[in-house]
Each structure stands twice: as structure tokens, then as C-alpha cells.
Amino acid sequence: MNLSSLYPVASRIRDDPRLRRWLAGGFLVLVAALLVTQARELDWSHVGAALAKLSPATLGLAALLAAASHALYAHFDLLGKHYTGHELARSRVLAVTFVSYAFNLNLGTLVGGVGFRLRLYMHYGLAPATVARVLSLSLVTNWLGYLMLAGAMFAAHALSLPPSWKLDGGGLRLLGVAMMGAALAYLALCAFAKRRDWAWRGHAFHLPSARLALLQLAISMLNWALIGAVLYVLFGRRIEYAHVLSVLCIAAVAGALAHVPAGLGVLEAVFAALLSHRLPMAEVVGVLLAYRAVYYLVPLLLAIGLYAQMERQAARGHSSASNR
Questions:
Q1: What is the enclosing helix (H) or strand (E) of 259?
Q2: Please, which contacts does 227-234 make with residues 24 or more away whose CB atoms are closer than 8 Å?
Q3: In this predicted model, what pLDDT tens digit does every residue of 29-52 receive, in sequence order?
Q4: Is-above-0.85 flag for pTM?
């Protein structure tokens, strides 16, 4: 998959202070607009009360589950290391993936998933084409597990959708079966296809081995299950895990289609629509604020510190090389 052409765009975003300011300003305006829209419909004193009900033990367990998810996601690029055969140390691969994932969650795929991976991996000597192959495998890994797990949830778990949605429970079940079929088709291709190289709209992809494809499926499904567990714990186990996971799966694809950084507003809208009959709106929003804190913001703060350290190390390395 040829993603290296995106590097100049991502690099320009990071290296052009004026462009970064414009983008940051636009993002803040979007955030403000979404927050104002949400705020008009909420009693924020009730949201604060819902947050106050979350015990330290609950927050601690949610944070541990979030840490486990981030650690597991970091192993996506270790599959990419095996897939491409590059020799970068495991510790650096894990660090790059953690930083990229944290920025990806909060700033979007172009800046986080693509830009940071390209910049950091190239600091460590990987060619853009190799980075593109690692990234393509990571993307496939993430959505392969999603297709299988979400498909299973939709097919097996009856989820009541709002009347305004143009999809009823039966349609969702059929969609779930189709999603599982797509995941199984990928596994079958990896296991039995004689043609290993495929191209679509100018993007090339080399099929991994069946063993690697099964590893992709396993760690991605577990990662999505962990994310669902974070929310399940924060909801105080008052809503069935399968129901929480199903709603998360709908919110995830809605956020991806909306192209809003961090799915801001989309996540809240989907959970509010599908859980408002089970819990007061203020409690739903309070839980989602806590979720954003433990899964998005805390890892982002850690990633900022780690990224700064990696940039300093890279700068010292370039300085030493130029002085030789």
C-alpha cells in the first residue's frame, strides 16, 4: 500500500508553524462548536455528579485496561516488523507505535497514524516504502479484528436502534454476517491464494502468511475487546458488556466515517442515542468524559513526553553524524 506520498503533507503540517496554528485554530473552533451544542442540552451539574460517583478503584481499573489496550496496539507494528523484515529494535518499534497511536486517537490518521510513523521511523533509518508497508499492515490488522468482533456482536446481539436510523435490528444482523464474511475472506486469501500481490486504486498490498493473518485477527479482536472493557467498567457494569461493545463498534465506524479528530461529538452522539433509554444522559456523558481522559488524554500526555525525547535523541544523532 503506497502511503509514502502522504509524508510531504504530514511533514509540512509539523514543520510549518503558520499552518499548525491555522489547523489548531480550526480544530479549537470545531471543538468549541461541538461543546456548545452538547452543553445546551445537558445539566452539567448532573454530569459532574456522575463523574464524582466514579470511585478511584473504578478509574484505576479502567486505566489499567486502557494501558493494556495501548500496549497491545503497540504490537501491531511488531507484526509489521515481521512482515517487512526490517531490523529496527523491538523497543523502538513499540515506542513509535505508542506515540503514533496516541496522536492518531486525538489528532486523526493523517497527522498521527501516518505523519508520526513516517517521521519517527525515518529518523531510525527505515525507508518510506517500508514504513508504508508497516502502516498498511497495521491498518488492516485494526479493521480485520473490528470486522470480526463487531460482526459477531451485530449478528448475535439484539441492539435496539433509534427509529430515525435507516437500519433495523434485522438489517444490523445481516450487516454483521457480511462483516464476518469479509474478515473470513481475508483469512482465506492469506491461507490459499496463489496470487500474493494485489493492487487497488494505485495501492499495492502483499498478502501476509496465514499464520500472520491469524495473529492480526487475534490481537486486534482482543484490543477492541479491551476498549469495550474500559467503557464497561466505567459504566459500573450496569449495562451488559456485549451491549456496550456493540455500541462502541457502531460509534467507532461512525467516527471514522465522520473524519472528526478523536471522534469528538460522534462518540457522544452514538452512545447518547443508544443508551439514553438505559441511563440518564448526564451519566452517559460523564462516563464518556472519564473514558476520554483515561484512553485519550493521559496516553497523549505520555506520548508528548516520549516524542520530545525521541526527537532530542534523533537531533543528537544527526548532530554527531554531521560532525564526523
A1: none
A2: 227/69, 227/295, 229/65, 230/62, 230/65, 230/66, 230/69, 230/291, 230/294, 230/295, 231/287, 231/291, 233/58, 233/61, 233/62, 233/65, 234/54, 234/58, 234/59, 234/62, 234/287, 234/290, 234/291, 234/294
A3: 544 454 455 455 555 566 777 788
A4: no
Residue 322 lies in a domain: no
What is the signed CA dihedral for 289, 295, 297, 299, rounded to 10 degrees?
170
Residue 201 included in any domain: yes
Count of other CB atoms within 10 angstroms of residue 97: 27
Question: Which residue range is the domain that position 280 belongs to?
Answer: 4-39+51-315
Residues 116 and 105: beta-carbon distance below 8 Å: no
Q: Are 126 and 86 in contact (CB under 8 A)?
A: yes
Quick: pLDDT tens for 57-85: 999 999 999 999 999 999 999 999 999 99
Number of domains in the chain: 1
In a domain, 237, yes or no: yes
